[in-house]
Design a protein that fits this description.
Elements: E1 2-3, E2 5-8, H1 24-37, E3 41-45, H2 51-63, E4 68-74, H3 77-86, E5 93-100, H4 103-110, H5 114-129, E6 135-140, H6 147-160, E7 164-169, H7 176-189, E8 197-202, H8 209-218, E9 223-226, H9 240-249, H10 251-254, E10 256-257, H11 265-276, H12 297-305, H13 333-342, H14 349-365, H15 371-378, E11 389-397, E12 405-412, E13 417-423, H16 427-439, E14 444-452, E15 461-469, E16 472-480, H17 483-503
Parallel strand pairs: 1-10, 2-3, 2-9, 3-4, 4-5, 5-6, 6-7, 7-8, 8-9
Antiparallel strand pairs: 11-12, 12-13, 14-15, 15-16
This protein binds 3-methyl-2-oxobutanoic acid (KIV) and zinc ion.
Amino acid sequence: MRKIYIFDTTLRDGEQSPGVNLNTKEKVEIALQLEKLGVDRIEAGFPAASPGDLAAVNAVARAVKNATVIGLSRSRETDIDAVREALKGAQDPCIHLFLATSPIHRKHKLRMEKDEVLEAADRAIRYAKQYFDKIEFSPEDAGRTELDFLCKVTDMAIKAGATVVNIPDTVGYMNPQEFGNIFKTLKENVPNIEKIQLSAHCHDDLGMATANALAAILNGADQIEGTINGIGERAGNTAIEEIAMALATRPDYFGAHTTLNLKEIAKTSRLVSKLTGMVIPGNKAIVGANAFAHESGIHQDGMLKEKTTYEIISPDTIGLKESKLVLGKHSGRHAFREKLIDLGYELEDEAVNTAFAKFKDLADRKKTVVDSDIRAMLEEKLIDTPEIFTLETIQVSYGNQSTPHASVRIRTVDGEIREESAEGNGSVDAIYNAIDQATKETVELEDYSIKSVSQGKDALGEVHVILKQDDISAQGRGLSTDILEASARAYLDAVNRLLDKSKSPSKRDKMSLI
Ligand code: KIV
Ligand code: ZN
C-alpha cells in the first residue's frame, strides 16, 4: 500500500483560526503530541510574522526529534532568512514557500503578470535552495489557477529545486472531481513530476476539505496537509484524523495508508481543543462526543447484538476507552492512581498527590467521577498560566425580579486581598464587573462559551472566554461543578494571561499572514 505523508499545520494554518493564539510553550506541547501521533511533518509557524512567531518556531524546531519541522515563508528573501533563523537546531528542517498564482490574486493582490509570478517564485526557490535541502512550494489559490499555467508553475518549481509541490485550494472552492483532476493533469503533463512529492492542502468553506483531499490521494497525491480537529482559517482545513481514519477504514478503496499512531488521535484532539479553546462540535467526525454514541432504539439493539451493525470504527482504535472503574468519594489513592495510568497520565508522586486532593474535593460535590471529569480536572489549567490574581471566594445573588449582584474576593501575587461588589444585567455580567473592579483592568469580553464535561445535574461545567485589551487578546478556561464559579475562574485566567502577554512583546498576537 502507498504511504501518504501527513503534513500537520495545526500550529500555522490552525493558529490562523479567529481568536486562537498559542504561546511558545503551548506550541511545543502540541508539537510533542503531534510527534507522538506520528505525523511526518509539522509546520510550526510563519517566522517573518513576528519575533514571537520566530521564537516559537525555533522552540518547536529544537524540541521535535522525529518529524520534519517546517517554517512558512512568502517568496521573498527577508522571509526566507527568518525561516533560516527559526529552524536553527532542527533535526530535519524544511521551508515552505508560497506565491499566489490564480488570476484573481495576480490581478488584485499581487498586481503581477504570469511571467512575473514565475520569475519571483523561481528566484525565491533558488535563493532558498542555498540553505535548504527540503523545499515545499505552494502556488497559493491553485484551485482557481488556469490548469495550463499551474503545469508551468509546477515545472518551474521542480527545475528550481522544490522537493514538494503543494496544491492549495485556498478558498475551499473546489469539488472532489475537479480537485482530483488537477493532480491527474499535473501527473500526466509535467516533466519529472515523479521526482517530487505532490501535496494537497484543502479548506472547508463548502464542507469538502476531506473529500477533496481524498480525491487528491486517489489521483496520485503523496502528502495531505491538514490540522487536528480541522481548525484553521475561516471554515478550517482538512481534518487529519478524518484522513487517517478514512484510509484506515477503507484500505480496500484507497489502497493507501498513513503511519500515524491512531491510538493517539483522541488525546491529540483534546489537547488541541483545550489549548486553542476551540470546542469540538458533538457531531464532529471521529473526535466529536457523539461520534460513537448510539441514540435510537433500533441502533442500540443492533449494537448490543453485533457492534459492526452500526459502528465502522471502534472507539478503542483512536484511543478512546471508557474504563469500568468509576470513582467516588470513597475511592482511595490506589484506585485513583490506577485510573490515572489507565487514562494514560504519567505523573510524579507529588503531582499525583495534588491531583488526588483535587479529586477528593470534586468527589465531595459530585456523586460519581467519570473519566471525562478526571481528564478535565487534570487538564484544567492552560499551560503556563501566571497566577497574578487568584480567586478566593465568590458570592452571587440572583432573582428574576431583581438586579443580579456579585461579590468577589481576589488575592494578588503580592498577597494583597481585594474585595469588590458589583451589579450586572445577569449573574455572569455582575461577576465580571466585580472582577474588573478588583483587578483594576479594563478588558473587553470577546467570546464566552460553556459546555458540560460529563452528564448529569452535578456535571462539571467548563467555561472558555477570550478577552481583549488594546490590541492583545488572551483566552482563559475555568472548571467547576458550578457554572458561575467556572465563569469567574475562566475570566481571571484570561486576565492573568493578558497581563502576562502585555509585559512581553514576544508573546503578543500574531500578525495577519498575507
Ligand atoms: O491555504 C493556503 O493557500 C495556504 C498556503 C500558505 C499554503 O495556507
Ligand atoms: Zn491554508
